[in-house]
Amino acid sequence: MNPLETRIRSLEAVARRLDPQPAERAALVDPVVAYANRFLDGLVTRPMFVGPSTDGAALRDAPFDEAPVLIDDLLRTIDAEVDTPGLNPASAGHLGYIPGGGLFHSALGDFLADVTNRYAGVFFASPGAVRMENRLLRWMGDLVGYPPAAVGNLTSGGSLGNLIGIVSARDAKGISSKAIDRSPIYLTHHAHHSLDKAIRIAGLGECPVRHVPMDTGYRMDAAALDRLVATDIAAGLRPWLVIASAGSTDIGAIDPMPAIGDIAARHGLWFHLDAAYGGFFALCDEGRRLLRGMDRSDSIVMDPHKGLFLPYGTGAVLVKDRNAVLHAHRYHAHYMQDARDAREEDSPADLSPELSKPFRGLRVWLPLKLCGLAPFRAALEEKLLLARYFQDAMGRIPGFEVGPDPELSVCTFRYVPQHGDADAFNERLVRRIRDDGRVFLSSTQVDGRFIIRLAVLAFRTHLETIDLTIDLLRRTALELESGQQGEIRA
Ligand SMILES: *Cc1c(COP(=O)(O)O)cnc(C)c1O
User: Fold this and answer.
1) pLDDT tens per residue across span 347-370
2) Which H or E element spans position 126?
3) Of ligand 1's atoms, which has the minimum distance to the CA of residue 312?
4) In angstroms, rounded to a whole number, what is the distance separating the alpha carbons of residues 246 and 124?
5) Which residue's CA is minimally distant from atom 6 of ligand 1?
6) What is the CA(276)–ligand 1 centre distance, in A?
7) Pairing of strands 241-245, 209-211
8) Of 192, 196, 453, which is best to mutate to test ligand 1, by the most ligand atoms within 8 angstroms of its C-beta?
9) Which residue among 5, 7, 176, 296 is buried most deeply as judged by most CB within 10 Å?
10) Could you give the residue range(s) of every CATH 3.90.1150.170 domain in the chain?
């Protein structure tokens, strides 16, 4: 062998460690599967929230050495440093924010997608992966009443979906940089902050933003929207975009979509609908009734990692105007010329900012097929009813004041103490519940007041967790109140 070959061979001997053979694979898979099973079997007793228990040095200061580390040692680090501190979103007690999911079936899809590493960005590279993703998007389109010609993309989440929708709206309406300060956007104060981010990222930060007033249920007041648009038109401005929510994050409120659709059509506005949280409730009869009018939008975002209980990292956006999405996102690079002729299906790379991307389809497709749709429909209706059950029970406990009836699965409430500052009291109440560790509730500000929030969307949450939460809130509020009275008397 010449020196070059000798060097190549010696490098190969080391590089081959990247490709474990059957016995080595088994030695990795077995402990990982055992760890996952231990995690799942122990979920019931695992606290919902743990403050940073170590200083994180095992992650932060540990070097990346030349030599390998054993899988058992690494699983111990993951357990102590990653899977212990912080919030535990896999648990039934995750009732804060909009809970995430984490279906086991999706993990198997991810495992296969990572091992085969099909490139799902371009039809030419993996017709099957692209067909699977487009089929899923068409299924979602059918669910919300979009026409078959609508296009879509499986994104990393709702934030990227909102960006794709807004960029498509911008190009469809021809909002050039010269016109920006005369082109108002309409939304409410309860629109998700990812929309504000998307507007800025899209270069639209100088569009006048009109915050449309809301009714007592924190839904967009459609008559007020109509008046604002008319006023702007009369003043010589060019209204172009209205953004509504089908399930706001704070309250779960559903904006009046049919009325907004009428106004948008009358004035030529693009209607973008953020249904990241609420969209998949359309799978159950009650949800479909509540969500009437989603089909009136021009673009819609819905998050499978919320309403389909998938692990984080899967959102979806659908847009009726295919050309608008292509205008913003299609690009033809010379080195991709081999891919040009295969055009049976739209390629995700032409419909999103991403080129390389994970094959997200398999983690959605596998659970839908393995479980069938029935358990998804049942779980979503169950969550709607659990929220109503909770609201009803809380409204009957003396001292608690409940917010608007939940439209979807978010309830808001607070305790009104006989003495002292209510905001401070409720802050203490949330902290006590968090310290107890069995359930996790979040809080928000509504009209400048501190409000506690319960959001039911974790697939492991069932009636017993809600009963536990009601009992915990009742007892903790009583304890805090009597403690406070003790302080006042002393
Ligand atoms: C969660 C959420 C988003 C953001 O989605 P990500 O998937 O977190 O990026 C946007 N809008 C609403 C209404 C949401 O609930």
Assistant:
1) 999 999 999 999 999 999 999 999
2) none
3) 7
4) 36
5) 158
6) 5
7) unpaired
8) 192
9) 296
10) 374-489
The pair of three-digit structure tokens given for residue 36, joined into one six-digit string: 């996952």
Q: Which fold has domain 374-489?
A: Aspartate Aminotransferase, domain 1 (3.90.1150)
Give the number of the atom of ligand 1 that is nearest the alpha carbon of residue 157: 7
Q: Which two tokens stand for residue 444?
A: 């928000």
Tell me how far the alpha carbon of residue 305 lies from the centroid of ligand 1, in angstroms.
10
% of the chain surpassing 70 pLDDT: 98
Q: What angle do CA 149, 152, 157 make, to 5 degrees?
A: 160
Q: Which two tokens stand for residue 104?
A: 């086991």
Q: What is the CATH number of domain 109-371?
A: 3.40.640.10
Burial of 235 (0-12, 13-18, 19+ CB in 10 A): exposed
CA-277 nearest atom, ligand 1: 15
DSSP of 288-352, one letter per residue? HHHTTTGGG-SEEEE-HHHHT-PPSS-EEEEES-HHHHHHHH----GGGGGGSS--SS--GGGSS
Nearest to 368 by CA among 286, 295, 304: 304
Report the separation in Å between the CA atom of 65 and the middle of ligand 1, taken as the mean of its atom positions: 38
pLDDT tens per residue, range 266-307:
999 999 999 999 999 999 999 999 999 999 999 999 999 999
Q: How many CB atoms lie within 10 A of CB 159?
A: 19
